[in-house]
Protein backbone atom coordinates (compact mmCIF):
# COMPACT_ATOMS: atom_id res chain seq x y z
CA UNK A 1 0.00 0.00 0.00
CA UNK A 2 1.58 3.35 -1.04
CA UNK A 3 2.06 6.41 1.16
CA UNK A 4 -0.74 8.47 -0.45
CA UNK A 5 -3.25 5.68 0.17
CA UNK A 6 -2.18 5.40 3.80
CA UNK A 7 -2.53 9.21 4.11
CA UNK A 8 -6.06 9.09 2.68
CA UNK A 9 -7.09 6.36 5.10
CA UNK A 10 -5.69 8.29 8.04
CA UNK A 11 -7.42 11.47 6.89
CA UNK A 12 -10.82 9.81 6.59
CA UNK A 13 -10.63 7.38 9.51
CA UNK A 14 -13.02 7.76 12.48
CA UNK A 15 -11.89 9.73 15.51
CA UNK A 16 -9.87 7.48 17.84
CA UNK A 17 -11.96 8.19 20.96
CA UNK A 18 -15.39 7.82 19.34
CA UNK A 19 -15.90 4.07 19.56
CA UNK A 20 -19.14 4.14 21.53
CA UNK A 21 -20.64 6.85 19.34
CA UNK A 22 -19.62 4.99 16.20
CA UNK A 23 -21.25 1.77 17.33
CA UNK A 24 -24.44 3.70 18.07
CA UNK A 25 -24.27 5.46 14.71
CA UNK A 26 -23.62 2.19 12.89
CA UNK A 27 -26.69 0.63 14.45
CA UNK A 28 -28.89 3.62 13.60
CA UNK A 29 -27.54 3.72 10.04
CA UNK A 30 -28.09 0.03 9.39
CA UNK A 31 -29.81 -0.53 6.06
CA UNK A 32 -28.94 2.96 4.79
CA UNK A 33 -26.97 3.23 1.58
CA UNK A 34 -23.92 5.50 2.00
CA UNK A 35 -23.90 8.62 -0.15
CA UNK A 36 -21.00 9.04 -2.55
CA UNK A 37 -20.30 12.36 -4.30
CA UNK A 38 -17.44 13.77 -6.41
CA UNK A 39 -14.97 15.76 -4.29
CA UNK A 40 -11.51 17.21 -4.46
CA UNK A 41 -8.92 16.98 -1.71
CA UNK A 42 -7.35 20.41 -1.11
CA UNK A 43 -4.25 21.22 0.94
CA UNK A 44 -3.71 24.64 2.51
CA UNK A 45 -0.69 24.84 4.78
CA UNK A 46 -1.10 22.27 7.55
CA UNK A 47 -4.79 21.76 6.78
CA UNK A 48 -6.54 19.47 4.30
CA UNK A 49 -10.18 19.63 3.40
CA UNK A 50 -12.60 18.38 0.77
CA UNK A 51 -14.29 20.68 -1.74
CA UNK A 52 -17.56 19.48 -3.23
CA UNK A 53 -21.13 20.41 -4.15
CA UNK A 54 -24.16 19.08 -2.27
CA UNK A 55 -27.89 19.69 -2.70
CA UNK A 56 -29.28 22.02 -0.06
CA UNK A 57 -31.86 19.42 0.93
CA UNK A 58 -29.10 16.97 1.88
CA UNK A 59 -27.27 19.61 3.92
CA UNK A 60 -30.47 20.29 5.82
CA UNK A 61 -30.71 16.58 6.70
CA UNK A 62 -27.11 15.96 7.75
CA UNK A 63 -25.85 19.13 9.48
CA UNK A 64 -26.10 20.34 13.05
CA UNK A 65 -24.63 23.03 15.30
CA UNK A 66 -23.26 23.07 18.82
CA UNK A 67 -24.75 26.24 20.33
CA UNK A 68 -22.99 27.71 23.33
CA UNK A 69 -26.20 28.23 25.27
CA UNK A 70 -27.13 24.53 25.10
CA UNK A 71 -23.63 23.18 25.61
CA UNK A 72 -21.65 25.72 27.69
CA UNK A 73 -18.65 23.40 28.05
CA UNK A 74 -18.05 22.49 24.40
CA UNK A 75 -20.48 24.60 22.36
CA UNK A 76 -19.24 27.57 20.37
CA UNK A 77 -21.93 28.52 17.81
CA UNK A 78 -24.15 31.60 18.18
CA UNK A 79 -27.91 31.21 18.49
CA UNK A 80 -29.87 30.90 15.27
CA UNK A 81 -31.72 34.02 14.12
CA UNK A 82 -35.00 32.62 12.67
CA UNK A 83 -35.73 35.88 10.85
CA UNK A 84 -32.41 35.70 8.98
CA UNK A 85 -32.95 32.04 8.07
CA UNK A 86 -36.45 32.81 6.77
CA UNK A 87 -35.13 35.66 4.62
CA UNK A 88 -32.66 33.25 3.00
CA UNK A 89 -35.46 30.73 2.36
CA UNK A 90 -37.60 33.48 0.83
CA UNK A 91 -34.67 34.54 -1.36
CA UNK A 92 -34.18 30.97 -2.62
CA UNK A 93 -37.88 30.40 -3.30
CA UNK A 94 -38.18 33.76 -5.09
CA UNK A 95 -36.11 32.26 -7.89
CA UNK A 96 -32.84 34.14 -7.38
CA UNK A 97 -31.27 31.00 -5.94
CA UNK A 98 -27.62 31.99 -5.93
CA UNK A 99 -25.75 31.70 -2.63
CA UNK A 100 -22.20 31.10 -3.90
CA UNK A 101 -20.31 31.25 -0.59
CA UNK A 102 -19.10 27.85 0.59
CA UNK A 103 -20.61 26.29 3.70
CA UNK A 104 -17.84 25.04 6.02
CA UNK A 105 -18.41 21.77 7.86
CA UNK A 106 -16.53 19.44 10.17
CA UNK A 107 -17.20 15.73 9.66
CA UNK A 108 -18.20 13.89 12.84
CA UNK A 109 -17.57 10.23 13.59
CA UNK A 110 -21.20 9.41 12.81
CA UNK A 111 -20.55 10.38 9.18
CA UNK A 112 -18.30 7.33 8.60
CA UNK A 113 -16.63 9.53 6.02
CA UNK A 114 -14.16 8.01 3.55
CA UNK A 115 -12.36 9.50 0.56
CA UNK A 116 -11.44 7.41 -2.46
CA UNK A 117 -8.57 9.28 -4.10
CA UNK A 118 -8.59 7.11 -7.24
CA UNK A 119 -12.30 7.70 -7.89
CA UNK A 120 -12.26 11.27 -6.54
CA UNK A 121 -15.31 10.44 -4.45
CA UNK A 122 -16.29 11.22 -0.87
CA UNK A 123 -18.57 8.73 0.87
CA UNK A 124 -20.55 9.37 4.08
CA UNK A 125 -23.63 8.26 5.95
CA UNK A 126 -26.82 10.30 5.81
CA UNK A 127 -27.05 10.97 9.54
CA UNK A 128 -28.69 14.04 11.16
CA UNK A 129 -25.46 14.74 13.04
CA UNK A 130 -22.97 13.72 10.37
CA UNK A 131 -21.52 17.22 10.04
CA UNK A 132 -20.97 20.06 12.48
CA UNK A 133 -21.52 23.50 10.93
CA UNK A 134 -18.48 25.74 11.30
CA UNK A 135 -19.73 28.52 9.03
CA UNK A 136 -23.12 28.87 7.33
CA UNK A 137 -25.72 27.80 9.89
CA UNK A 138 -28.23 30.45 8.76
CA UNK A 139 -27.81 29.45 5.13
CA UNK A 140 -28.34 25.78 5.94
CA UNK A 141 -31.41 26.41 8.08
CA UNK A 142 -32.67 28.74 5.37
CA UNK A 143 -32.23 25.90 2.87
CA UNK A 144 -34.21 23.67 5.21
CA UNK A 145 -37.11 26.16 5.27
CA UNK A 146 -37.04 26.73 1.50
CA UNK A 147 -39.46 24.87 -0.77
CA UNK A 148 -36.87 24.51 -3.52
CA UNK A 149 -33.44 22.86 -3.39
CA UNK A 150 -30.26 24.37 -4.82
CA UNK A 151 -26.72 23.10 -5.25
CA UNK A 152 -24.35 24.49 -2.62
CA UNK A 153 -20.53 24.73 -2.57
CA UNK A 154 -19.28 22.88 0.53
CA UNK A 155 -15.95 22.58 2.32
CA UNK A 156 -15.59 19.63 4.71
CA UNK A 157 -12.79 19.24 7.24
CA UNK A 158 -12.22 15.83 8.81
CA UNK A 159 -10.69 14.55 12.03
CA UNK A 160 -10.74 17.95 13.73
CA UNK A 161 -10.60 18.12 17.52
CA UNK A 162 -13.16 20.36 19.21
CA UNK A 163 -10.43 22.89 19.95
CA UNK A 164 -9.54 22.95 16.23
CA UNK A 165 -13.19 23.42 15.26
CA UNK A 166 -13.40 26.37 17.66
CA UNK A 167 -10.22 27.95 16.28
CA UNK A 168 -11.50 27.53 12.71
CA UNK A 169 -14.81 29.15 13.73
CA UNK A 170 -12.93 32.10 15.26
CA UNK A 171 -10.67 32.50 12.22
CA UNK A 172 -13.60 32.60 9.82
CA UNK A 173 -15.62 35.03 11.93
CA UNK A 174 -12.83 37.44 12.89
CA UNK A 175 -10.57 37.58 9.84
CA UNK A 176 -13.23 38.00 7.19
CA UNK A 177 -14.32 41.60 6.72
CA UNK A 178 -17.98 42.14 5.79
CA UNK A 179 -18.94 44.49 2.98
CA UNK A 180 -19.69 47.94 4.50
CA UNK A 181 -23.36 48.95 4.54
CA UNK A 182 -22.38 52.16 2.76
CA UNK A 183 -21.05 50.19 -0.20
CA UNK A 184 -24.10 47.92 -0.27
CA UNK A 185 -26.36 50.97 -0.47
CA UNK A 186 -24.20 52.50 -3.16
CA UNK A 187 -24.40 49.41 -5.40
CA UNK A 188 -28.07 48.64 -4.72
CA UNK A 189 -29.00 50.73 -7.75
CA UNK A 190 -26.67 48.74 -10.00
CA UNK A 191 -28.35 45.52 -8.85
CA UNK A 192 -31.77 47.00 -9.72
CA UNK A 193 -33.35 46.16 -6.36
CA UNK A 194 -33.98 49.70 -5.06
CA UNK A 195 -37.42 50.52 -3.72
CA UNK A 196 -39.04 53.83 -4.66
CA UNK A 197 -38.09 55.26 -1.25
CA UNK A 198 -34.49 54.01 -1.61
CA UNK A 199 -34.25 55.58 -5.06
CA UNK A 200 -35.41 58.97 -3.77
CA UNK A 201 -32.84 58.95 -0.95
CA UNK A 202 -30.14 57.87 -3.39
CA UNK A 203 -30.96 60.71 -5.80
CA UNK A 204 -31.13 63.34 -3.05
CA UNK A 205 -27.76 62.22 -1.64
CA UNK A 206 -26.22 62.39 -5.12
CA UNK A 207 -27.54 65.93 -5.60
CA UNK A 208 -26.00 67.03 -2.30
CA UNK A 209 -22.73 65.41 -3.35
CA UNK A 210 -22.51 66.92 -6.84
CA UNK A 211 -24.20 70.35 -6.77
CA UNK A 212 -21.93 73.36 -6.36
CA UNK A 213 -24.45 75.14 -4.11
CA UNK A 214 -24.78 72.11 -1.81
CA UNK A 215 -24.59 72.75 1.92
CA UNK A 216 -22.81 69.39 2.19
CA UNK A 217 -20.37 69.81 -0.71
CA UNK A 218 -17.22 67.84 0.10
CA UNK A 219 -18.71 66.43 3.30
CA UNK A 220 -20.33 63.25 1.96
CA UNK A 221 -18.96 59.74 1.56
CA UNK A 222 -21.11 57.46 -0.63
CA UNK A 223 -19.33 54.10 -0.37
CA UNK A 224 -17.55 54.05 2.99
CA UNK A 225 -17.57 55.49 6.47
CA UNK A 226 -14.90 58.19 6.84
CA UNK A 227 -14.23 60.55 9.74
CA UNK A 228 -15.37 64.08 9.05
CA UNK A 229 -17.96 63.04 6.45
CA UNK A 230 -21.61 61.96 6.37
CA UNK A 231 -21.99 58.44 5.05
CA UNK A 232 -24.89 57.34 2.86
CA UNK A 233 -26.13 55.18 5.76
CA UNK A 234 -26.24 58.16 8.16
CA UNK A 235 -27.80 60.41 5.52
CA UNK A 236 -30.54 57.89 4.71
CA UNK A 237 -31.30 57.26 8.39
CA UNK A 238 -31.66 61.00 8.99
CA UNK A 239 -33.97 61.58 6.01
CA UNK A 240 -36.13 58.56 6.78
CA UNK A 241 -37.03 60.21 10.08
CA UNK A 242 -38.70 63.08 8.16
CA UNK A 243 -39.97 61.19 5.11
CA UNK A 244 -43.54 62.25 5.90
CA UNK A 245 -42.63 65.82 4.97
CA UNK A 246 -41.79 64.86 1.40
CA UNK A 247 -44.63 62.63 0.27
CA UNK A 248 -44.68 62.34 -3.55
CA UNK A 249 -41.92 64.96 -3.87
CA UNK A 250 -39.24 64.71 -6.53
CA UNK A 251 -35.55 64.55 -5.63
CA UNK A 252 -34.96 68.07 -6.97
CA UNK A 253 -37.75 69.46 -4.75
CA UNK A 254 -36.46 67.68 -1.66
CA UNK A 255 -32.95 68.90 -2.37
CA UNK A 256 -33.99 72.53 -2.83
CA UNK A 257 -35.79 72.73 0.52
CA UNK A 258 -33.33 70.66 2.54
CA UNK A 259 -30.34 72.44 1.07
CA UNK A 260 -31.72 75.82 2.10
CA UNK A 261 -32.39 74.45 5.59
CA UNK A 262 -28.92 72.91 5.98
CA UNK A 263 -27.19 76.04 4.70
CA UNK A 264 -29.03 78.02 7.36
CA UNK A 265 -28.02 75.41 9.94
CA UNK A 266 -24.37 75.73 8.94
CA UNK A 267 -24.57 79.50 9.28
CA UNK A 268 -26.01 79.02 12.77
CA UNK A 269 -23.30 76.53 13.74
CA UNK A 270 -20.75 78.99 12.43
CA UNK A 271 -21.74 81.37 15.24
CA UNK A 272 -20.07 78.85 17.56
CA UNK A 273 -17.19 78.09 15.18
CA UNK A 274 -18.74 74.65 14.81
CA UNK A 275 -19.69 74.70 11.13
CA UNK A 276 -17.83 71.46 10.34
CA UNK A 277 -19.58 69.62 13.18
CA UNK A 278 -22.60 69.15 10.94
CA UNK A 279 -20.95 65.88 9.89
CA UNK A 280 -21.31 64.52 13.44
CA UNK A 281 -23.95 61.73 13.06
CA UNK A 282 -25.89 62.68 16.22
CA UNK A 283 -25.98 66.38 15.28
CA UNK A 284 -26.94 65.74 11.65
CA UNK A 285 -29.77 63.39 12.67
CA UNK A 286 -30.97 65.79 15.36
CA UNK A 287 -31.08 68.68 12.88
CA UNK A 288 -33.02 66.45 10.46
CA UNK A 289 -35.58 65.72 13.19
CA UNK A 290 -35.84 69.46 13.89
CA UNK A 291 -36.56 70.22 10.22
CA UNK A 292 -40.34 69.69 10.29
CA UNK A 293 -40.76 72.03 13.27
CA UNK A 294 -38.67 74.75 11.65
CA UNK A 295 -40.23 74.30 8.19
CA UNK A 296 -43.71 74.67 9.67
CA UNK A 297 -42.75 78.03 11.18
CA UNK A 298 -41.20 79.17 7.90
CA UNK A 299 -44.41 78.21 6.08
CA UNK A 300 -46.54 80.23 8.53
CA UNK A 301 -44.29 83.29 8.52
CA UNK A 302 -43.28 83.39 4.87
CA UNK A 303 -46.06 81.68 2.95
CA UNK A 304 -44.13 78.51 2.24
CA UNK A 305 -41.11 80.19 0.67
CA UNK A 306 -38.31 77.91 1.83
CA UNK A 307 -35.28 80.10 1.19
CA UNK A 308 -32.04 80.23 3.13
CA UNK A 309 -32.98 83.70 4.44
CA UNK A 310 -36.38 82.54 5.64
CA UNK A 311 -34.92 79.48 7.38
CA UNK A 312 -32.33 81.76 9.03
CA UNK A 313 -35.16 83.95 10.30
CA UNK A 314 -36.20 81.03 12.51
CA UNK A 315 -32.86 79.33 13.09
CA UNK A 316 -30.38 82.12 13.81
CA UNK A 317 -32.12 83.26 17.05
CA UNK A 318 -32.24 79.60 18.08
CA UNK A 319 -28.54 79.06 17.43
CA UNK A 320 -27.66 82.29 19.25
CA UNK A 321 -29.36 80.91 22.36
CA UNK A 322 -27.37 77.68 22.22
CA UNK A 323 -24.20 77.30 24.24
CA UNK A 324 -21.06 75.51 23.13
CA UNK A 325 -22.01 72.73 25.54
CA UNK A 326 -25.26 72.20 23.60
CA UNK A 327 -23.32 70.73 20.68
CA UNK A 328 -23.00 66.95 20.58
CA UNK A 329 -20.82 65.29 23.19
CA UNK A 330 -19.48 61.76 23.32
CA UNK A 331 -22.24 59.27 24.02
CA UNK A 332 -25.11 61.71 23.37
CA UNK A 333 -27.84 60.27 21.15
CA UNK A 334 -29.49 62.21 18.36
CA UNK A 335 -32.88 61.68 20.05
CA UNK A 336 -31.72 63.35 23.27
CA UNK A 337 -30.08 66.13 21.28
CA UNK A 338 -33.26 66.73 19.25
CA UNK A 339 -35.38 66.84 22.40
CA UNK A 340 -33.07 69.49 23.87
CA UNK A 341 -33.08 71.50 20.63
CA UNK A 342 -36.85 71.30 20.36
CA UNK A 343 -37.24 72.82 23.81
CA UNK A 344 -34.69 75.51 23.02
CA UNK A 345 -36.50 76.38 19.78
CA UNK A 346 -39.87 76.64 21.52
CA UNK A 347 -38.48 78.62 24.46
CA UNK A 348 -37.44 81.45 22.19
CA UNK A 349 -40.69 81.57 20.23
CA UNK A 350 -42.73 84.44 21.60
CA UNK A 351 -46.35 85.31 20.75
CA UNK A 352 -45.32 88.95 20.46
CA UNK A 353 -42.71 88.08 17.87
CA UNK A 354 -45.25 85.88 16.07
CA UNK A 355 -47.90 88.62 15.86
CA UNK A 356 -45.78 91.66 15.10
CA UNK A 357 -42.80 90.35 13.16
UniProtKB/TrEMBL annotation:
Pfam families on file: DndB
Chain segments carrying region Disordered: 1-21
Name of the featured protein: DGQHR domain-containing protein
Organism listed in the record: Methylocystis hirsuta
Taxonomic path: Bacteria, Pseudomonadati, Pseudomonadota, Alphaproteobacteria, Hyphomicrobiales
